[in-house]
Amino acid sequence: MLYHTKFLGGDTIKIGFIGPGKVGVSLGRYFTHKGINVTGFYGRNLENTIKAAKSTKSKVYCSLKNIIEESNILFITTPDDTISIIDTEISSFNFNLKNKSICHTSGSLSSNLLSNVKHSGALTYSIHPIYAFSSKNTDLKELENIYFSIEGENINENDEIITLMKILNNKYFVRSINTYSSYHLATVFVSNLVLSLLEIGTNYFKEFGLSEKEALEALKPLIMGNINNIFAEGFVKSLTGPVSRGDITPIQKHLSVLREDHKNVYKELSLNLLNLVALKMSLKTDNTAHEKNKELELKNLLENSNEYKYIYKILGGIEL
């Protein structure tokens, strides 16, 4: 379930950041922009920590002990393989962490990674901003539109972390603790793997003598038009291309010029497009059709169309 509730305030929340990297600095700047009290930053690299603190007009902490004492919410924004080390270090102070909220921002790890601070009384969370942070100078206006996913034990409306979300006025959703692998997989598919797919397509344009920049400029209207259509109409109504049309000849020509290491990617993605084509055809006759019927609808499509049946075969589809 998605939440988006307007909430004013923020002066009682004090947030400290452990890790002055792209995510930590960007979120720190954004929280400050939203009127939230950022206490400061702690980091291994003093120069980066000083810059992070300056960007948020906050404090440089030289010890974990001090930032813990002066913050009621701690964001661990370090690389994934450092989070458990920070968890151990914090718990080594033998503090009573009751009423402290400690979270990491990794989408690929669960809140269970913070087991030591949890045993010391802290409320622990994985809070993942669904955004690709490529810089510490992230446009704050862009951050106003991002979603946050929250995972933790027994989350309720009275949790301070939920209060923070309401102050930010960003949309968010709560997910269960066993979802972190599939959740992160979803974000990788639509972000990192899309980047890889675009790079593959752009390289074919470079074979025509275009630079990467020129190829991207040429392809941008096609890419953005497709993305805009998906957001406006959904996947099924945005279908175009030879698979959608049942056009066999262009697909055969594609397969003849594809690099060998790209063939499996092409075939798998095209087979998935056939699933969407089947769903589109079924929606023309039955408005109640939905994705749960995908396998049945594909079977019906192949039984009723020799063109699509042949496309399915040359793409390496297994007989249904």
Automatic annotation (TrEMBL):
SUPFAM superfamilies: 6-phosphogluconate dehydrogenase C-terminal domain-like, NAD(P)-binding Rossmann-fold domains. Residues 146-271 form the DUF2520 domain. Residues 13-129 form the Putative oxidoreductase/dehydrogenase Rossmann-like domain. Transmembrane segments: none annotated. Signal peptide: none annotated. It holds the Pfam family Rossmann-like. This is DUF2520 domain-containing protein.
